[in-house]
Amino acid sequence: MEIVNAIYKLSSVLNDVTNMIIFKAKQKNLEFHVNVDETLPDELYGDPVRVRQVVVNILNNAVKYTDKGSVSFHVEGVRDDDMINLIFTVKDTGIGIKSEDLPKLFGKFQRVDLERNSTVEGTGLGLSITKNLLEMMKGEVNVDSEYGKGSTFTIRLPQKIIRDEAIGNFQEKFNQYIQSMRAYRESFRAPEAHILVVDDTDMNLTVVEGLLSKTEIKIDTASSGFEALSLTKKTKYDLIFMDQRMPQMDGTEAMQNIRSQDGGMNHDTPVICLTADAVSGAREEYLRLGFTNYLSKPVEGPAIENMLVKYLPESKVILQKTFADDESSNGTDAGHTELEEFYETAEGLSYDDAVRVCSNEDILARTLEQFYRSINENSNAIELFFMNGDYKNYTIKVHALKSSARLIGALKLSDDARHLEDCGNDLSESSMLQIQERTPKLLEDYRSLIDILSPLYAAKDKARESAPEISRESLNEAYEAIKEFSASFDIDAIDSVIEEVRKYKIPESESARFEKIENSARNMDWNGLNDALKA
Ligand code: ATP
Ligand code: MG
Hints:
The chain is an alpha/beta fold. The protein contains 20 helices and 14 strands.
């Protein structure tokens, strides 16, 4: 074990660990409280990977050995010149530890209270590694526990202060971070474009304005059909978003009036319906009424963006090649993006390589999510072919892993997969032996990326979890739409259908199929897509 010191941001480490633990705590229905002293310096010198590791070990235990109640996480510091002793306190309301067991905890392979813990998995290494790492970093860990009531673990860790800029309200930053994870970043600007948004609820107007603020599109708003009609006489718009449900004059009526208005300047302007009831058949209905297209509410960034790119005059749209060069959204971190920061803390992943191979961060972000979401399916497939001795398919699969791991910058995993691919092609006795020996480790490393990457998608997955379940009817309709679009190879349209469906929970019985559809679409694997649609 090595300590590799570097300048790092405490907030970034705390983001990672809390984001990861909050998800696990939620799964067990535990409350998770975070409290970080706002005056702590943010820029420190130390080993962020190891700091993360020791804190995660302790937090993981707290969640693991607590069945109900809460886990709280406090971070404060005691200054000493240009050093600070960080104090991490993790308190749980779990099963507690008998006082006679306390001295054993930090030994190798020590697990205590085995009668109670018989169903809890573990190797008993976590705390011994934690203790060793802390000793190497001149820190320490202590425990205080009351059997049956709960435990408190305290870590003290001296780190050097690089810049004494306060970390600030961590909770706020944490929320911002979660927001930015799901944040939509516009991929185009259109400063010459002029649009009208009609909605009787001010908040909805604000939402749309907010979503589009960075596109520099000129936006007029109207809070009723009547107001809209007076504006459409004066100004020629490039596009109109029209709320459907408004008092007195509803969206359909307003749209039809705009189309035929005496002296109106917008007879041919695309009018997009905004509707909260995206029921089955809605699309056809809105088109039949005369709308150009429709968007379901709540309106989300990518959807509205797609619509604009589709219907704004091409000459007014300036496509942004990447969003990696969007400095303004990266806060104070001299050009470091969130994803880049994440990579810094993720063991075994190289950001630079990934961005180079993917050519830009936008593609990397998409590839990474796709990679993450297919780990289960792919690793199971490799394992199955391996166990069945189906080396032909095994080799195809590790070949694919070799490439996809390289795309996300998991270079070692990629190399390991390449080695096994070579063995699979060769099939000599020694190669077979290699496959037997090395595949379990490959699978383990591959699957470990689920835990490593999950913090990136925790917020999104959580949102998915709390969403209402989609109806059979809507789902079937989505399948139909995807079929149609796949006939014309319209991947953007397919993406937006998938995105729409993803706003809902998918019924258990359909989730594997939908995942297959999603993965095939992401890979533009048209055969796979058709197979999945047929099923
Ligand atoms: P792993 O190697 O996967 O972490 P583990 O959690 O069993 O396995 P350690 O983290 O080293 O191993 O913890 C050692 C033992 O200490 C655990 O098996 C458990 O009995 C006890 N323990 C650790 N943390 C707590 C806690 N917060 N509450 C109660 N018991 C705990
Ligand atoms: Mg443990």
